[in-house]
Write a structure and sequence with these properties.
alpha/beta; transferase; single chain; 10 helices; about 325 residues; four-stranded mixed sheet; kinase; about 25% strand; Sugar/nucleoside kinase (Ribokinase family); nine-stranded mixed sheet; PfkB_dom
Length: about 325
Protein backbone atom coordinates (compact mmCIF):
# COMPACT_ATOMS: atom_id res chain seq x y z
CA UNK A 1 0.00 0.00 0.00
CA UNK A 2 1.24 3.60 -0.53
CA UNK A 3 2.68 5.29 2.52
CA UNK A 4 2.90 8.98 3.35
CA UNK A 5 6.42 10.28 2.74
CA UNK A 6 7.99 11.27 6.06
CA UNK A 7 10.65 13.78 7.03
CA UNK A 8 12.57 15.76 6.26
CA UNK A 9 15.52 13.96 7.85
CA UNK A 10 18.99 15.53 8.02
CA UNK A 11 21.77 12.89 7.99
CA UNK A 12 24.86 14.52 9.49
CA UNK A 13 28.34 13.06 9.73
CA UNK A 14 30.27 10.24 8.10
CA UNK A 15 30.15 9.66 4.33
CA UNK A 16 32.16 6.76 2.90
CA UNK A 17 32.57 4.88 -0.36
CA UNK A 18 32.68 1.10 0.18
CA UNK A 19 34.27 -1.35 -2.25
CA UNK A 20 33.09 -4.87 -1.40
CA UNK A 21 33.98 -8.33 -2.68
CA UNK A 22 32.44 -11.67 -1.69
CA UNK A 23 33.11 -14.37 -0.76
CA UNK A 24 36.73 -13.90 0.35
CA UNK A 25 38.21 -16.82 2.28
CA UNK A 26 41.80 -15.56 2.31
CA UNK A 27 44.05 -12.79 1.00
CA UNK A 28 46.21 -14.32 -1.77
CA UNK A 29 49.99 -14.43 -1.49
CA UNK A 30 52.17 -12.27 -3.74
CA UNK A 31 50.36 -11.33 -6.94
CA UNK A 32 48.04 -14.32 -7.06
CA UNK A 33 44.43 -13.81 -8.11
CA UNK A 34 41.35 -15.22 -6.40
CA UNK A 35 38.04 -15.26 -8.26
CA UNK A 36 34.99 -14.02 -6.34
CA UNK A 37 31.28 -14.02 -7.10
CA UNK A 38 30.56 -10.33 -6.74
CA UNK A 39 32.21 -6.91 -6.40
CA UNK A 40 30.20 -3.77 -5.63
CA UNK A 41 30.88 -0.11 -4.84
CA UNK A 42 28.33 1.70 -2.66
CA UNK A 43 27.57 4.80 -0.64
CA UNK A 44 28.15 3.93 3.01
CA UNK A 45 29.00 5.29 6.44
CA UNK A 46 26.84 6.12 9.43
CA UNK A 47 25.30 9.13 7.67
CA UNK A 48 25.40 8.25 3.95
CA UNK A 49 24.44 4.59 4.35
CA UNK A 50 21.56 5.47 6.64
CA UNK A 51 20.44 8.23 4.26
CA UNK A 52 20.08 5.80 1.35
CA UNK A 53 18.06 3.36 3.47
CA UNK A 54 15.88 6.19 4.76
CA UNK A 55 14.96 7.21 1.22
CA UNK A 56 14.16 3.61 0.31
CA UNK A 57 11.84 3.44 3.33
CA UNK A 58 9.99 6.57 2.26
CA UNK A 59 11.75 9.53 3.88
CA UNK A 60 12.83 12.88 2.45
CA UNK A 61 16.55 13.09 3.27
CA UNK A 62 19.45 15.52 3.00
CA UNK A 63 23.12 14.76 3.73
CA UNK A 64 25.54 17.05 5.57
CA UNK A 65 29.28 16.51 5.95
CA UNK A 66 32.48 16.62 3.93
CA UNK A 67 33.90 14.63 1.02
CA UNK A 68 36.98 15.02 -1.13
CA UNK A 69 37.23 16.81 -4.45
CA UNK A 70 38.16 13.53 -6.13
CA UNK A 71 36.71 10.72 -8.23
CA UNK A 72 35.34 8.91 -5.17
CA UNK A 73 33.55 12.10 -4.18
CA UNK A 74 32.07 12.33 -7.67
CA UNK A 75 30.82 8.77 -7.32
CA UNK A 76 29.35 9.39 -3.88
CA UNK A 77 27.40 12.43 -5.08
CA UNK A 78 26.15 10.52 -8.11
CA UNK A 79 24.96 7.44 -6.23
CA UNK A 80 23.34 9.43 -3.42
CA UNK A 81 21.60 11.62 -5.99
CA UNK A 82 20.42 8.59 -7.94
CA UNK A 83 18.77 7.26 -4.80
CA UNK A 84 17.06 10.60 -4.23
CA UNK A 85 19.18 12.03 -1.40
CA UNK A 86 19.66 15.81 -1.38
CA UNK A 87 23.46 16.28 -1.45
CA UNK A 88 23.61 20.09 -1.50
CA UNK A 89 24.81 20.01 2.12
CA UNK A 90 27.97 18.03 1.36
CA UNK A 91 31.11 20.20 1.34
CA UNK A 92 33.93 19.26 -1.03
CA UNK A 93 37.48 19.55 0.31
CA UNK A 94 40.22 20.38 -2.18
CA UNK A 95 43.25 18.19 -1.53
CA UNK A 96 41.37 15.78 0.75
CA UNK A 97 40.43 12.21 -0.11
CA UNK A 98 36.85 11.04 0.15
CA UNK A 99 36.65 8.47 2.95
CA UNK A 100 36.71 4.93 1.61
CA UNK A 101 36.81 1.31 2.75
CA UNK A 102 37.76 -1.96 1.08
CA UNK A 103 35.73 -4.84 2.53
CA UNK A 104 36.59 -8.47 1.74
CA UNK A 105 33.41 -10.22 2.87
CA UNK A 106 33.87 -13.69 4.36
CA UNK A 107 31.53 -16.56 3.40
CA UNK A 108 29.73 -16.20 6.76
CA UNK A 109 29.02 -12.51 6.12
CA UNK A 110 31.81 -11.17 8.36
CA UNK A 111 33.54 -8.04 7.16
CA UNK A 112 37.12 -7.10 7.98
CA UNK A 113 38.02 -3.73 6.47
CA UNK A 114 40.76 -1.48 5.17
CA UNK A 115 39.77 2.14 5.75
CA UNK A 116 40.88 5.70 4.93
CA UNK A 117 38.97 8.29 7.06
CA UNK A 118 39.72 11.11 4.63
CA UNK A 119 37.55 14.23 4.61
CA UNK A 120 35.31 12.95 7.43
CA UNK A 121 37.98 14.10 9.88
CA UNK A 122 37.55 17.70 8.67
CA UNK A 123 33.79 18.10 9.28
CA UNK A 124 32.95 21.22 11.26
CA UNK A 125 29.77 23.08 12.27
CA UNK A 126 30.26 25.34 9.25
CA UNK A 127 29.42 22.32 7.08
CA UNK A 128 25.93 21.94 8.58
CA UNK A 129 23.36 24.56 7.61
CA UNK A 130 21.33 25.51 10.70
CA UNK A 131 18.12 25.81 8.68
CA UNK A 132 18.43 22.17 7.57
CA UNK A 133 18.65 21.03 11.18
CA UNK A 134 15.85 23.28 12.41
CA UNK A 135 13.39 22.28 9.67
CA UNK A 136 14.06 18.56 10.05
CA UNK A 137 11.60 16.22 11.73
CA UNK A 138 14.59 14.04 12.58
CA UNK A 139 18.35 14.62 12.66
CA UNK A 140 20.54 11.55 12.46
CA UNK A 141 24.08 12.02 13.75
CA UNK A 142 26.19 9.35 12.08
CA UNK A 143 29.69 8.80 13.41
CA UNK A 144 30.18 11.61 15.93
CA UNK A 145 33.17 9.68 17.28
CA UNK A 146 34.92 10.37 13.96
CA UNK A 147 33.48 13.76 12.98
CA UNK A 148 34.66 15.13 16.32
CA UNK A 149 34.81 18.67 14.92
CA UNK A 150 31.05 18.79 15.52
CA UNK A 151 31.68 18.53 19.26
CA UNK A 152 31.28 22.28 19.44
CA UNK A 153 29.09 24.36 21.78
CA UNK A 154 27.41 26.12 18.88
CA UNK A 155 26.46 22.89 17.14
CA UNK A 156 25.24 21.29 20.38
CA UNK A 157 23.12 24.40 21.04
CA UNK A 158 21.68 24.03 17.52
CA UNK A 159 20.64 20.47 18.32
CA UNK A 160 18.96 21.70 21.49
CA UNK A 161 17.05 24.34 19.54
CA UNK A 162 15.88 21.73 17.06
CA UNK A 163 14.77 19.37 19.83
CA UNK A 164 12.89 22.18 21.55
CA UNK A 165 10.94 22.59 18.30
CA UNK A 166 10.02 18.90 18.17
CA UNK A 167 12.88 17.44 16.14
CA UNK A 168 14.00 13.93 17.13
CA UNK A 169 17.80 13.52 17.28
CA UNK A 170 19.33 10.06 16.91
CA UNK A 171 23.01 9.11 17.07
CA UNK A 172 24.97 6.15 15.72
CA UNK A 173 28.73 5.59 15.90
CA UNK A 174 31.39 4.37 13.50
CA UNK A 175 34.56 3.21 15.24
CA UNK A 176 35.42 0.82 18.04
CA UNK A 177 38.22 3.03 19.38
CA UNK A 178 37.69 3.68 23.12
CA UNK A 179 39.17 7.18 23.14
CA UNK A 180 36.96 8.36 20.29
CA UNK A 181 33.86 6.69 21.72
CA UNK A 182 34.42 8.22 25.14
CA UNK A 183 34.69 11.67 23.55
CA UNK A 184 31.41 11.08 21.70
CA UNK A 185 29.60 10.90 25.05
CA UNK A 186 29.61 14.72 24.99
CA UNK A 187 26.75 14.54 22.46
CA UNK A 188 24.47 12.40 24.62
CA UNK A 189 22.76 15.20 26.60
CA UNK A 190 21.74 16.68 23.24
CA UNK A 191 20.42 13.43 21.73
CA UNK A 192 17.11 11.60 22.11
CA UNK A 193 18.14 8.08 21.05
CA UNK A 194 21.61 6.55 20.80
CA UNK A 195 22.08 3.35 18.76
CA UNK A 196 25.54 1.81 19.32
CA UNK A 197 26.54 -1.78 18.75
CA UNK A 198 27.51 -3.85 21.78
CA UNK A 199 31.26 -3.30 21.47
CA UNK A 200 30.77 0.45 21.20
CA UNK A 201 28.35 0.56 24.13
CA UNK A 202 30.74 -1.35 26.37
CA UNK A 203 33.69 0.83 25.35
CA UNK A 204 31.72 4.03 25.97
CA UNK A 205 30.60 3.00 29.43
CA UNK A 206 33.04 0.46 30.83
CA UNK A 207 30.05 -1.76 31.64
CA UNK A 208 30.30 -5.55 31.71
CA UNK A 209 27.21 -6.29 29.62
CA UNK A 210 24.55 -4.74 27.41
CA UNK A 211 22.13 -4.11 30.27
CA UNK A 212 24.76 -2.27 32.30
CA UNK A 213 25.81 -0.23 29.27
CA UNK A 214 22.21 0.74 28.57
CA UNK A 215 21.71 1.99 32.13
CA UNK A 216 24.95 3.98 31.99
CA UNK A 217 23.98 5.61 28.69
CA UNK A 218 20.51 6.48 29.97
CA UNK A 219 22.18 8.20 32.90
CA UNK A 220 23.85 10.54 30.39
CA UNK A 221 20.46 12.06 29.60
CA UNK A 222 19.14 10.31 26.46
CA UNK A 223 15.50 9.23 26.17
CA UNK A 224 16.37 5.82 24.82
CA UNK A 225 19.22 3.42 24.14
CA UNK A 226 19.08 0.76 21.42
CA UNK A 227 22.12 -1.53 21.51
CA UNK A 228 22.43 -3.75 18.44
CA UNK A 229 23.64 -7.27 19.21
CA UNK A 230 24.17 -8.80 15.78
CA UNK A 231 22.49 -12.18 15.51
CA UNK A 232 21.08 -11.73 19.01
CA UNK A 233 18.91 -8.79 17.94
CA UNK A 234 18.93 -5.63 20.03
CA UNK A 235 18.34 -4.35 23.54
CA UNK A 236 15.90 -1.46 23.92
CA UNK A 237 15.95 0.63 27.10
CA UNK A 238 14.15 3.92 27.68
CA UNK A 239 14.08 6.55 30.38
CA UNK A 240 10.40 5.80 31.00
CA UNK A 241 11.04 2.19 31.95
CA UNK A 242 11.13 0.02 28.83
CA UNK A 243 13.66 -2.81 29.10
CA UNK A 244 13.22 -5.36 26.33
CA UNK A 245 15.22 -7.47 23.93
CA UNK A 246 14.04 -7.47 20.32
CA UNK A 247 15.10 -10.70 18.57
CA UNK A 248 16.80 -10.74 15.19
CA UNK A 249 14.89 -12.15 12.22
CA UNK A 250 16.01 -15.36 10.55
CA UNK A 251 17.31 -14.61 7.05
CA UNK A 252 20.09 -16.03 4.85
CA UNK A 253 23.08 -13.78 5.68
CA UNK A 254 25.35 -12.77 2.82
CA UNK A 255 26.97 -9.63 4.23
CA UNK A 256 26.52 -7.74 7.50
CA UNK A 257 27.86 -4.45 6.12
CA UNK A 258 25.42 -1.62 6.81
CA UNK A 259 23.06 -3.58 9.05
CA UNK A 260 23.48 -0.99 11.81
CA UNK A 261 22.75 1.83 9.36
CA UNK A 262 19.62 0.02 8.19
CA UNK A 263 18.49 -0.53 11.77
CA UNK A 264 18.81 3.22 12.39
CA UNK A 265 16.85 4.00 9.22
CA UNK A 266 14.02 1.64 10.06
CA UNK A 267 13.87 2.95 13.61
CA UNK A 268 13.74 6.60 12.50
CA UNK A 269 11.05 5.91 9.91
CA UNK A 270 9.04 4.06 12.53
CA UNK A 271 9.20 7.04 14.87
CA UNK A 272 8.23 9.43 12.08
CA UNK A 273 5.20 7.26 11.36
CA UNK A 274 4.15 7.72 14.98
CA UNK A 275 5.11 4.25 16.22
CA UNK A 276 6.30 3.64 19.78
CA UNK A 277 9.96 2.90 20.48
CA UNK A 278 9.60 -0.90 20.53
CA UNK A 279 7.63 -1.01 17.29
CA UNK A 280 10.14 1.34 15.65
CA UNK A 281 12.93 -0.97 16.88
CA UNK A 282 11.20 -3.89 15.17
CA UNK A 283 11.06 -1.88 11.94
CA UNK A 284 14.80 -1.32 12.34
CA UNK A 285 15.34 -5.03 12.96
CA UNK A 286 13.53 -5.92 9.74
CA UNK A 287 15.49 -3.33 7.75
CA UNK A 288 18.77 -4.75 9.09
CA UNK A 289 17.66 -8.28 8.22
CA UNK A 290 16.86 -7.27 4.64
CA UNK A 291 20.25 -5.58 4.26
CA UNK A 292 22.06 -8.72 5.44
CA UNK A 293 20.63 -10.66 2.50
CA UNK A 294 22.58 -8.62 -0.08
CA UNK A 295 26.06 -7.19 -0.59
CA UNK A 296 26.72 -3.67 0.67
CA UNK A 297 24.99 -1.15 2.89
CA UNK A 298 22.35 -0.29 0.27
CA UNK A 299 21.41 -3.90 -0.49
CA UNK A 300 18.31 -5.88 0.38
CA UNK A 301 15.89 -3.06 1.17
CA UNK A 302 13.23 -2.50 -1.49
CA UNK A 303 10.72 -0.37 0.39
CA UNK A 304 8.68 -0.02 3.55
CA UNK A 305 6.05 -2.54 2.47
CA UNK A 306 8.80 -5.14 2.05
CA UNK A 307 10.00 -4.46 5.61
CA UNK A 308 6.51 -4.67 7.08
CA UNK A 309 5.83 -7.87 5.15
CA UNK A 310 8.94 -9.45 6.67
CA UNK A 311 7.69 -8.51 10.12
CA UNK A 312 4.30 -10.02 9.29
CA UNK A 313 5.91 -13.23 8.15
CA UNK A 314 7.96 -13.37 11.35
CA UNK A 315 4.86 -12.84 13.49
CA UNK A 316 2.98 -15.58 11.65
CA UNK A 317 5.75 -18.19 11.91
Amino acid sequence: MPHTRVGPVAAVGVHIVDVLARPVEHIPEGQDTVLVEQIRITAAGSAAGTAVDLVKLGAEVSCHGAIGDDELGDFLLAVLGRHGVDTAGLARRTGEQTAASILPIRPDGGRPSFHVPGANLTVSPADVAPEAVLRAKAVHLGGMDVTFGLNDPGFLALLDRARAGGTVVTMDLLSNMPDLLTAAKAFLPHVDYVLPNLEQALAMTGAADAEGAAEALLAEGVRGVLITLGGDGSLVATADGVRERVPALEVPVRDTTGCGDAYCAGFIVGLLHGRDVLTAARWGTAAAAKTATGLGSDAGIVGLDDILALLGEAAAS
